[in-house]
């Protein structure tokens, strides 16, 4: 009876708990990435507005991004956006206007290009952020699409690529002090 009913029940319970835990942790990880990215893009948009309101407004309203960013005010804005994108969290970043035109990118060759990405289109229509996992240059990344309303009439979408292992590194570092304490306890207990 014990081997036929109890052991399989315990094993099934353990598997269900592990599966539930795995799904919960993955969901939580995606939510954390999404929330922190949303805060950073809001900060980036505020920085862009404070750096040069006219150039930022022109980009958001649909002026030719190559022309705007070629002007002295636009160059100042591009430099501020590029420095914000190089914050250590972001591998790559693009900003799109409502017409799907890239108004800023960490890769200058993308500026002015019309993006036909379906996820970005869905984010513009739904006004809800989206996140998906991707691999770029052999590195696992989260590709995060986040809409942002600028003023009353304009919306933009940020596409941000972030390393998917950032939270893993934070978790490992958070356990480092615990690891030292366990080692200390183990060494002192063995010697006693």
Quick take:
This protein is α+β, with helices and mostly antiparallel strands and 192 residues long. Helices cover 59% and strands 20% of the residues. It has a 5-stranded antiparallel sheet.
Kindly estimate the percentage of residues that lie in beta strands according to DSSP: 15-25%
* Number of beta strands: 5
Q: What is the chains' assembly state?
A: single chain
Q: Tell me the number of helical segments per DSSP (H or I, 4 or more residues long).
A: 6
Element-level helix/strand string: HHHHEEHEEEH
Report the average pLDDT across residues.
Answer: 83
Overall, the morphology is elongated
Strand order of the largest sheet: 2-1-5-4-3
User: Spans of 5+ residues with little confidence (pLDDT < 50)?
Assistant: none
Percentage of residues in helical conformation = 55-70%
Descriptive report:
The protein is of the alpha+beta class and 192 residues long. Helices cover 59% and strands 20% of the residues. It contains six helices and five strands. It has helices at 2-51, 53-61, 65-70, 72-85, 118-126, 166-191, and strands spanning 92-96, 102-105, 130-136, 139-150, 154-163. The protein has a five-stranded antiparallel beta sheet. A hairpin with a 2-residue loop joins β3 and β4.
């Amino acid at each position: 009876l014990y081997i036929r009913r109890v052991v399989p029940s315990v094993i099934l319970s353990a598997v269900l708990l592990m599966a539930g835990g795995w799904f919960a942790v993955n969901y939580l990880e995606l939510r954390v990435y999404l929330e922190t990215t949303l805060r950073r893009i809001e900060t980036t948009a505020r920085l862009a507005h404070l750096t040069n309101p006219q150039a930022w407004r022109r980009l958001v309203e649909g002026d030719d991004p190559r022309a705007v960013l070629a002007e002295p005010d636009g160059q100042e804005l591009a430099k501020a956006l590029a420095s914000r994108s190089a914050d250590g969290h972001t591998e790559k970043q693009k900003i799109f206007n409502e017409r799907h035109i890239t108004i800023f990118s960490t890769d200058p060759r993308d500026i002015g290009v019309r993006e036909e990405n379906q996820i970005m289109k869905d984010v513009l229509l739904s006004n809800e952020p989206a996140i998906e996992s991707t691999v770029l240059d052999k590195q696992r990344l989260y590709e995060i699409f986040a809409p942002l309303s600028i003023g009353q009439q304009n919306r933009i979408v940020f596409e941000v690529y972030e390393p998917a292992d950032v939270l893993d590194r934070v978790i490992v570092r958070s356990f480092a002090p615990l690891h030292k304490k366990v080692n200390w306890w183990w060494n002192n207990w063995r010697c006693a």
